[in-house]
Specification:
The complex is a heterodimer. By secondary structure, chain A is an alpha/beta fold. Helices cover 50% and strands 19% of the residues of chain A. Among the domains of chain B are: 109 residues, Beta-Lactamase (2-Layer Sandwich); 158 residues, 2-Layer Sandwich (Heat Shock Protein 90). The chains are: A alpha/beta, B alpha+beta.
């Protein structure tokens, strides 16, 4: 089984880089960007992550709007919101827009890994099913 | 109008900085109300009373003066007739004699006897010639031959033909008056003058005869203003009569008072052909008893009415003032509650901001610690690995504690999603009680449920209601000692509200604590105890508000605490 590929979008660079390193230690392939538009750029450049970890509050395009753009580029990608303030309404809105789940900062690494794996599993199933249908 | 606008201004101007404190203000307000009511009620009553009193009195005065005038008229006629009759009889009898016979002593004797038969009060009789010499005389005095030409009565009779003199003492030294008739032309040989004298005592006796009313004083006054007959109230003959009768034709005098305060009504009239004024003086009204009774009853009724009005005014104004006081207190309570809510809301906003700002660095710390742990764990040759892991575990646990606090802070301040359902509040309470009943049992605390099973179902969030009741119940259980009681009651309240009251038998909450009890981080528990962060009641407050409810706490001195939570049956939880 190949490594799960994660795109981490968070304007808190210290947080993002540290988390990325921890995930890499656990054999995930992680790309870190600090802004939503950078994420779109790397996607446009051909990156196809299995799971996108998205901060909700960011300068420029926020996490919710970024999710829409990301889904346009890759409808099957799964997104998990990481939020620093428990604005449940934002998180619910994220879920409505097709996010896989959300987690509150500070996060528990075990919980995050579990969610990433579930999301990746889901993506795998869905893209497999879609492939099946197209065949 | 000024008074009304003053009261109005006073009620409305309850501004801080007013020169009067509340108590003084209510006392002043009551005085104002009573004054206003006094002006509106008592003054008209007094005016009507006075009008009625004077009207009724003038009626009595008129009645009395009318009767007195009639009495006077009747007495005047009687008096005038009495004297005129004597004069006429003298005249008629004298005309039956010749000029010479009238000067004949024996004839005059006969005439006197005839006259005395009819008019026994005649004292003597004399015949005078035109020079004023009394040429014949019958009577008890030696007055024959006396010349009366210098006497006033002689001169009056000489000029008027007949005359009734004023009372005088004369030669005999006894008060009397003289009636005179004349015949022939004055100054001629055939002229004569017949005079009879009558003691003034007769007049007094006659007055006593015709005056049958005990309350009326009837007497004669001369033109010089002194008494001619005895008066009950003004003294003996010759005394000066105090009232001015100068204008004495027919005269009525009203409105005087005697020393006892009784009304004095005087009617006087000039007697025709006589130098006297007849005076009738009455003290007290004709129907004096009725008047006195009326006065007593009238005063009693008016005083009773005034007292009743005063009492009612006092009661009504006191009720009004206490209504205003209650309204003020309600307003104060609402104001205080609004301020409290606003304060909690701003504290909540601040807490949310702080929590959010702390969360991000906390997340960084968490990840850094996590990475250190990861590196330690994944490195085979890391010296002192175990000690490092213990240290990072300690740091991670501190981060976890901080996270819990920020989560609670956010929970207080912020809306959380709700799951609306129709539920029975009693069911929720029974569930919550089932969570804590074991603890209560171990600690010998009695849990009393007084639940109204007729309550309607309400729209709310079961989980959050549980959180509310659990939190308050835990606080109550913490507060009571062994053998204490925690009572949970539910009841219906208007309008369409369900009330839950949780009472404990603990030591209660001091008043200075009650003010802050719903503020975040306010706690009376010792810090190292479990869940002593001081966020419990503030979160409860936030959830109650979110569920459209209202929570308040009371703690009368010497009793336990009482939490009162009201929820409407319907609540728009989406708002």
């Amino acid at each position: 089984m190949s490594a799960i590929e994660v795109l981490l979008v968070d304007d808190e660079i210290e947080f993002a880089e540290t988390l990325a390193e921890r995930l890499r230690l656990r054999s995930f392939k992680v790309t870190v960007v600090s802004r939503a538009d950078e994420a779109l750029t790397v996607l446009d450049a051909g990156l196809r992550p299995d799971v996108v970890l998205l901060d909700i509050k960011m300068p420029g395009l926020d996490g919710l709007d970024a999710l829409g753009e990301i889904k346009l580029r890759d409808p099957d990608v799964e997104a998990i919101f990481l939020t620093g303030h428990s604005v449940a309404s934002s998180s619910i809105e994220g879920m409505k827009r097709g996010a896989f789940d959300y987690l509150m900062k500070p996060i528990d690494i075990a919980e995050l890994i579990s969610k990433i794996e579930q999301a990746a599993e889901k993506r795998k199933e869905e893209s497999g099913g879609a492939d099946g249908q197209s065949m | 109008m000024k008074l009304i606008s003053r009261i109005r201004g006073f009620i409305l101007s309850d501004e801080p900085g007013s020169s009067l404190n509340r108590k003084q203000r209510y006392a002043y307000l009551q005085r104002l109300f009573v004054s206003a009511a006094f002006v509106a009620v008592i003054l008209p009553l007094v005016v009507i009373t006075l009008l009625g009193f004077f009207q009724y009195r003038s009626l009595f005065e008129r009645d009395t003066s009318d009767k007195l005038r009639l009495d006077t008229q009747s007495a005047k006629q009687s008096f005038e007739f009495h004297i005129q009759e004597t004069l006429s009889t003298m005249n008629v009898v004298a005309q039956g004699y010749s000029y010479g016979e009238l000067f004949d002593q024996s004839k005059l004797d006969t005439l006197f006897i005839r006259l005395r038969n009819e008019y026994w009060w005649v004292v003597d009789l004399g015949t005078l010639d035109s020079s004023g010499v009394q040429r014949a005389y019958v009577g008890p005095y030696p007055f024959q031959g006396i010349n009366y030409s210098d006497q006033e009565w002689f001169q009056n009779a000489y000029s008027r033909k007949t005359d009734v003199s004023d009372i005088f003492t004369g030669y005999r030294g006894v008060p009397h008056f003289v009636v005179t008739v004349t015949s022939g032309a004055p100054g001629t040989d055939r002229y004569w003058m017949l005079r009879a004298s009558i003691n003034s005592e007769h007049l007094s006796n006659y007055i006593t005869t015709i005056n049958t009313d005990d309350s009326t004083d009837m007497f004669l006054v001369g033109v010089d203003g002194t008494l001619r007959t005895q008066s009950r109230n003004h003294g003996k003959i010759g005394d000066v009569y105090s009232m001015d009768l100068a204008a004495a034709g027919n005269n009525i005098s009203l409105g005087q008072r005697d020393e006892q305060g009784s009304p004095v009504i005087v009617v006087s009239t000039k007697l025709e052909g006589m130098p006297w004024i007849l005076v009738l003086e009455r003290r007290g009204y004709v129907y004096g008893e009725t008047w006195n009774q009326f006065q007593m009853q009238f005063i009693a009724i008016v005083v009773a009415c005034a007292l009743l009005a005063l009492y009612m005014m006092f009661r009504v104004t006191r009720a009004m003032v206490s209504m205003i006081k209650r309204a003020d207190e309600r307003r104060d309570e609402m104001l205080a509650e609004a301020q409290h809510t606003a304060k909690l809301a701003s504290v909540g906003q601040l807490a949310a901001g702080v929590a959010h700002e702390i969360n991000n660095p906390l997340a960084i710390i968490n990840e850094k610690i996590g990475l250190i742990r990861d590196l330690t764990r994944y490195s085979d040759d890391f010296p002192q690995r175990d000690r490092f892991l213990v240290l990072t575990d300690g740091a991670a646990s501190a981060v976890k504690r901080c996270k819990d606090i920020t989560q609670r802070l956010l929970g207080f301040a912020r809306r959380m999603e709700v799951e609306k359902e129709k539920l029975h509040i009693n069911d929720v309470i029974r569930e919550v009680v089932s969570f804590v009943e074991k603890e209560a049992l171990y600690r010998d605390i009695k849990l009393d449920l007084v639940l109204d099973d007729t309550l309607p179902r309400m729209e709310s969030d079961r989980g959050q209601l549980q959180q509310i009741f659990l939190n308050i119940l835990n606080n109550a259980l913490d507060a009571v000692e062994k053998n204490g009681t925690v009572t949970i009651e539910t009841m219906a309240k208007k309008p369409r509200t369900v009330r839950t009251v949780i009472t404990d038998t603990g030591p209660g909450i001091p008043q200075n604590v009650i003010k802050h009890i719903f503020e975040p981080f306010f706690t009376t528990k010792i810090r190292n105890e479990a869940s002593g962060t001081g966020l419990g009641l503030s979160i409860t407050y936030g959830i109650v508000k979110k569920l459209c409810g209202h929570i308040s706490v009371e703690s009368p001195p010497g009793e336990g605490a009482k939490f009162i939570i009201d929820f409407p049956i319907e609540c728009d939880l989406e708002e």
